[in-house]
Amino acid sequence: MARIQVRVPERLVRVDRRVRDKLLSGALRQVAAAQLKEKEKELREVERKLASFERKYGKELKAFERSFPVHASVQMHEDLVEWSFWHDVREKSRQVVEDLRFCLGQG
């Protein structure tokens, strides 16, 4: 397990350790739950963006990359760059969502 140090007001340090631990863990759960809700919403939007490229080209990104024409149009190049960007964002977002769910005991 990793250790994280947090700077808190001196008055919080003086609070009984059990109470302080409950306060801090409760605050972390509350923030994690709010962040999870926000990140899941962002992930749904990213999924919509990716689905629009899949509909447009009738395939997933990897298949599109494999069949990318040598003389592709400027639009296809731009789409490839944007599609790749959103693909990376999805992978990072999924990891954040998974980590937050773990923090909340949901996975």
Provide a descriptive summary of the structure in words.
This protein has helices at residues 10-14, 17-57, 61-66, 74-103. It is an all-alpha fold and 107 residues long. The protein has a domain at 36-103. Helix 2 runs antiparallel to helix 4 (74-103). It is elongated and about 70 Å long. The protein starts with 9 loop residues before the first helix and ends with a helix.
Descriptors:
mainly alpha
List the helices and strands and how they pair.
Layout: H1 10-14, H2 17-57, H3 61-66, H4 74-103
Helix pairs in contact: 2-4
Brief synopsis:
The protein is an all-alpha fold and 107 residues long. The chain has helices at 10-14, 17-57, 61-66, 74-103.
- Give the rounded overall mean pLDDT: 95
Beta-strand portion reads under 5%
Helix content: over 70%
Low-confidence stretches: none
- Number of strand segments: 0
Please provide the ordered H/E string of secondary-structure elements: HHHH
User: For the CA atoms, what is the radius of gyration?
Assistant: 21 Å
| SSE-based structural type | mainly alpha
Total helical segments: 4
Q: What would you call the shape?
A: elongated
Sheet with the most strands, sense and barrel status: none
Distance between the termini: 18 Å
